[in-house]
Amino acid sequence: MIAVDTSTLIAFLKGEKGNDVDELDSCLESQIIYLPPLVLTEILSDPGLPVKIINNLLKIPLLDTTEGFWERAGKTRSRILSKSLKCRIADSIIAQSCIDYGVPLITRDKDFRHFEKYTEIKIIW
What we know:
By secondary structure, the chain is α/β, with parallel strands linked by helices. The protein has one domain: 3-Layer(aba) Sandwich (Rossmann fold). The chain is 54% helix and 7% strand. The protein is built from seven helices and four strands, in the order E-H-H-E-H-H-H-H-E-H-E. Strand 3, helix 7 and strand 4 form a beta-alpha-beta unit. Helix 1 packs across helix 2. The two termini are 16 Å apart. 28% of the residues are buried.
């Protein structure tokens, strides 16, 4: 199981290059990719997203939230903010999904470096 962040998924859909996109492509072929629910929400927010892509995205399994998720996400965000570091709520929710399942996150968003340093999440750049 490996999760993907919105930044890498958008890059993949646009046909951009990068180690993260290559990793995502490999994981999609192996059918080991999962989506944090917020990533799916962010991607589906694009009003111009083709129906074929929407249908393919909906086939990817989600890292569903579990009991106590929102409290843990808040505490994780608080831990990062206590270091006077940038920590968006959306990033906290995505990171917590991965932390709860113990899965790495493929991303190109450098804001996740703080989570990698101060939580148990593994980031694949």
